[in-house]
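@channel sequence for tomorrow's demo:
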Amino acid sequence: MNAKKTLVERQTELQTLMASVVGRKELEKLASGYQIAGGKAWPMKTSVITYIIVHERSQGLIAD
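structure tokens (generated this afternoon):
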């Protein structure tokens, strides 16, 4: 993700990826990378999309 996107734009992108097995694997890989980079555990009850969005927001990658 290079340019800032709105929350709605990013949620739509991530939800589209959830629609396929390959996309879900890509999301899990992205979340895993964020977990390693950020050092914060992925809470068990949190969806992968929520985890990714929270991380990207904290990094300033999502426009408010």
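heads up for whoever presents: The CA atoms of residues 25 and 50 lie 15 Å apart.
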